[in-house]
Automatic annotation (TrEMBL):
Residue ranges occupied by any NID domain in the UniProt entry: 13-102, 113-202
Gene: Nmi
One Pfam assignment: NID
Domain of life: Eukaryota
Protein name: NMI protein
Source organism per UniProt: Lanius ludovicianus (Loggerhead shrike)
Xref: InterPro entries: Nmi/IFP35_dom, Nucleotide-bd_a/b_plait_sf
Length: 217
């Protein structure tokens, strides 16, 4: 299930009823007089709406044509020459290379490169290989090799959730009682049919600060 966060602010409460008709009825009344700590408090009832957000599926696959290379040493040669040496080095199939190369993207500052082979599945030659020999300037260096991942977003959809069973109370005044006691008073008031209420599934009241409440879609 998708969890959608909602910011609950100070002196607010969220109430979720078993019956959505109760929540809709209370919302239409908009104002309620609630007995809190022997004082009558006028609180506002608002429909509960989640902020606009997005949900999507992220699909990750290992590229069959690309590999990532890192720990490439700094050598006293032009970047274009080093890129050519990388291409020659990873082309050689006799030492476990991937064959013909389509492209080499080299970043001198980070010492990394992405090698793209021409043949699909060529990167499979490097599965399980974390170090690969690189011959340049009469020396042999060990380069780090790792898979290249392709990321695809699917079923990208915006949402603006509205819970028909939940209401938002605003403007709850501060009283001397502790948070739990005030929450109990609110629950007692709104579960009484004589006040237009009904059975409550969940309630969350906040007297100070702010908190995020998660709803499952």
């Amino acid at each position: 299930a998708t969890k959608i966060p909602f910011r609950l602010n100070q002196n607010q409460a969220l109430l979720t009823f078993e019956d959505e008709e109760v929540a809709q009825r209370l919302t239409k009344m908009s104002k309620h007089s609630v007995n809190l700590d022997n004082k009558t408090a006028n609180v506002a009832v608002r429909p509960f709406e989640l902020e606009m957000g997005f949900q999507f599926e992220l699909h990750v696959t290992v590229s069959g044509k690309k590999i990532n290379v890192s720990e490439i040493p700094e050598l006293p040669i032009p970047a274009a020459w080093l890129r050519d040496k990388l291409e020659l080095n990873f082309y050689k199939t006799e030492q476990g290379g991937g064959g013909e190369i389509e492209n080499v993207t080299y970043n001198k500052e980070s010492g990394t490169a992405v090698i793209t082979f021409l043949k699909p599945g060529a990167s499979n030659n490097f599965f399980g290989c974390t170090k690969y020999p690189f011959y340049a300037e009469g020396r042999c260096f060990k380069l780090s090799v790792s898979p290249n991942f392709d990321f695809h977003l699917r079923n990208f959809q915006p949402y603006c959730g509205v819970s028909k069973k939940t209401i938002l109370l605003k403007g709850i005044p501060e009283v001397e009682e502790d948070e739990e006691s005030v929450q109990d008073m609110i629950e007692i008031h709104f579960q009484k049919p004589s006040n237009g209420g009904g059975e409550i599934e969940k309630i969350k009241y906040l007297s100070k600060g702010a908190a995020y409440v998660c709803f499952e879609e």
